Amino acid sequence: RFRLTPPSPVRSKPQPAVPQELEMPVLQSSLALGLELRATAGSHFDAAKAVEEQLRKSFQIRCGLEESVSEGLNVPRSKRLFRDLVSLQVPEEQVLNAALREKLALLPPQARAPPPKAPPGPGPDMTILCDPETLFYESPHLTLDGLSPLRLQLRPRPSEDTFLMHRTLRRWEA
């Protein structure tokens, strides 16, 4: 070691001749460590068991072993390289729709129109107000002797009458 300043004469104390506790390691400093050391020394080392345990624990060793076994079994290199990849056949339209949904999710929410209501049921029955026989009317005519009777021709009522009947029905319901 380098000392930048000479030792101070004031601080000098005599060094004790007895070694300190932590100066050198003491063999079997704890009782549990000593018992474990004695048990290990007395037991027989099983190499096969140690290799099996190492293979189970080490990922790199396991991968190397699988690689050498697959070479021995003539497995093509392409299958060895990409064996954990999953092949997906996704339609292009589905991918585009998913991307569109993601982009739309990033947009700020906008006020949306309420969903359309269910179409209204059938309208009121207009035949309540009148007799079905009178839904058509005839124009008055004169009968003359010698002429064949006029053939009656039915004419439908104008559409305004339908709305008039509907309005009348609403008034009666109220």
From TrEMBL:
<feature type="domain" description="Protein phosphatase 1 regulatory subunit 35 C-terminal">
    <location>
        <begin position="25"/>
        <end position="168"/>
    </location>
</feature>
<keyword id="KW-0963">Cytoplasm</keyword>
<dbReference type="InterPro" id="IPR029135">
    <property type="entry name" value="PPP1R35_C"/>
</dbReference>
<dbReference type="GO" id="GO:0019902">
    <property type="term" value="F:phosphatase binding"/>
</dbReference>
<comment type="similarity">
    <text>Belongs to the PPP1R35 family.</text>
</comment>
<dbReference type="InterPro" id="IPR033590">
    <property type="entry name" value="PPP1R35"/>
</dbReference>
<dbReference type="GO" id="GO:0005814">
    <property type="term" value="C:centriole"/>
</dbReference>
<keyword id="KW-0206">Cytoskeleton</keyword>
<dbReference type="Pfam" id="PF15503">
    <property type="entry name" value="PPP1R35_C"/>
</dbReference>
<protein>
    <submittedName>
        <fullName>Protein phosphatase 1 regulatory subunit 35</fullName>
    </submittedName>
</protein>
